[in-house]
Amino acid sequence: MQVGRLRYDIFFKKVFHKKHILKAFLNTVLAPELSTPIKDVTYEPTDFIIKGKNQLVQSTKHDVIDVFCITEQNQRILVELQKGYSKRAMARFMDYQCRNYSSQFPTGSDYSVVLPCYSICWFFDLQPPHSEIKETLTLHSNCKETDWQFDWEIIALYPRNIPPAHIEQETISDLEEWLLLDVVDNIDKATKIQALLQTEEVKEAFEDMDLLGLSEEEIRRTLDLYEEKRQAEREAANREIAKSLLDVLDVETICQKTGLSREEIKALRSS
Questions:
Q1: Cα distance between residue 10 and residue 8, in whole Å
Q2: Would you say 182 and 159 are in contact if contact means Cβ atoms under 8 Å apart?
Q3: Alpha helical stretches, state H, 130-250
Q4: Alpha-carbon span 229 to 235, nearest angstrom
Q5: Eight-state DSSP code of residue 160
Q6: Residue 82 forms beta bridges with which residues?
Q7: Residues 180, 167: Cα–Cα separation, whole Å
Q8: Is the dihedral angle over the CA atoms 213, 211, 127, 260 positive or is it negative?
Q9: Is 12 helix (H, G, I), strand (E, B) or coil?
Q10: Residues 6 or more apart from 28 whose CB is under 8 A from it?
Q11: pLDDT tens digits for 161-220?
């Protein structure tokens, strides 16, 4: 079995466009936050949804999945699922989460009726200074008794923080089982991880990432899109570093530290 990486847009969407898989994943991640499990999910009207195999490549421009959910107690919530590769992505996640919150209020709305909002951010390759696989950022008051109540959270997931011992000893948690979808980097590891999976939805997601189900063109395009995105993020990060150094270092030194050309740095200075 030759397994791709969930970080590739084509597999991220191929897996999570299936409602039963997405619902199972959200119920695992949001279990501590929700009083009852999610019973139904509806995709918001964005153009990320894959409608057929012939659109697998063409539908990989967006990596944000917006979902409207209803729990077993008929509570309505909004969830946003997205992915990132560096700390810089968190600012973007917070921006999207704020828009997700504010989009509930068209002109004339009752601002006292607010749906809970959760933004789940799957970080690929990023290893934070802590050892947790799940980090929750919340909006709350510092007062124990308050009238201000907001169900507004950003949840960051870190597959890199799965303890190797959990895999070796086969003692993975429910959430770790999902995050194992992004630690496959060779056939031997894929075989071992496949044997660890117990949840039917995770097993199906793992099978959906089999490269044998794609044509050579789709595989090539998948890898190209991923590398193009990573390169664009690296260049954007280098430009930000260069901007911060314009007033303290000469052009040649900035070129050496960022890999940008003299022309690019001069353009930043004049912008």
A1: 5
A2: yes
A3: 164-168, 174-179, 187-196, 200-208, 216-245
A4: 10
A5: G
A6: 64, 121
A7: 9
A8: negative
A9: helix
A10: 174, 175, 178
A11: 999 899 888 899 999 999 988 866 555 677 778 888 899 999 998 888 776 655 656 656
User: 26 pLDDT exceeds 80?
Assistant: yes
Tell which residue, 83, 79, 41, has the closest CA to residue 60: 83
Rounded to an integer, what distance in angstroms lies between the CA atom of residue 95 and that of residue 76? 22
Q: Please report where in the chains the tokens 């008794």 appear, as a residue.
A: 145
> Residue 185 in 3-state DSSP?
coil
| Beta bridge partners of residue 80, listed in sequence order | 66, 119
Would you say 134 and 29 are in contact if contact means Cβ atoms under 8 Å apart? Answer: yes
Cβ atoms of 56 and 14 closer than 8 Å: yes
d(CA 168, CA 86): 28
Question: Tokens representing 176?
Answer: 């770790």
